[in-house]
UniProtKB/TrEMBL annotation:
InterPro entries, sorted: AB_hydrolase_fold, TEII, Thioesterase
GO BP, one annotated term: monocarboxylic acid metabolic process
SUPFAM superfamilies per record: alpha/beta-Hydrolases
Gene behind the chain: Sast
Organism: Sylvietta virens
GO molecular-function terms, A-Z: fatty acyl-[ACP] hydrolase activity
A Pfam family per the record: Thioesterase
Family note: Belongs to the thioesterase family.
Annotated ranges, domain Thioesterase: 17-244
EC number(s) on file: 3.1.2.14
Protein name (Swiss-Prot/TrEMBL): oleoyl-[acyl-carrier-protein] hydrolase
Residues in the signal sequence: none
Amino acid sequence: MEKLVACVQKRPDALCRLICFPWAGGGTSQLAQWGKLFNDSIEVFCIRLPGRESRLEEPFPKDMTSVVNEVTSVLLKELKEKPFAFFAHSFGTYTSLAVALHLKEKYGLEPVHLFMSAAHAPNSAGHLALKNMALPDEDNEFLACMETVGGNYELPRNEDIRKNIALSTREDTRVFQTFSFEKAEMNIPFSCDVTYFCGSDDKTYDVQGWRELTSGDTSFYEFPGNHFYLLKPSNESLLIKHITRCIENAGL
């Protein structure tokens, strides 16, 4: 499990696990640290996909199905063991949704709460446009394209770092484009509450469709900042307080 999951603060007596799914090209270095910031009632797992960090030598995933199969097969025992919630940002939103849909359909398991961030609802025109977008072959053009669709954030100037970011982000984007969502197949797929977060200076996302994905409550919150608003310490602190409150109010 250590290959797939980063857990920097083990909490064996936690009431709930928060499974975090990073953005395209991202690793576990930021969200895994949340494990030190939550109280003892929540243990944080952060998903590490192949092709980065300690999995650098492994080939990138070919499609969303292979990601879903790995996450569910590795974590199934833990997900059956105690309640869990998902937090996911940008590309990670679709990974988490694909995993959640598979868990519900195959095992009857559902998160107690879905926390989604900076992404189009999967049943929206915005999501469809991204899914069908042509990806430029040249690295700088590709990164410029990602800035346009994924928010206004600064990329490092170092050429080698940019090249690595371009590679992992491109591979993750290809995985995202293999994710298909047909709401009609499952009617309303979830019954848990859904909370959607975004940055005030980020691009506008097509988000109203989140309401159609659950029979639970749907809430929307905006934080000051760009696509990576969640990395600002003041926003991070508020996010953690809000997520804690939602999980503790979920009647575990």
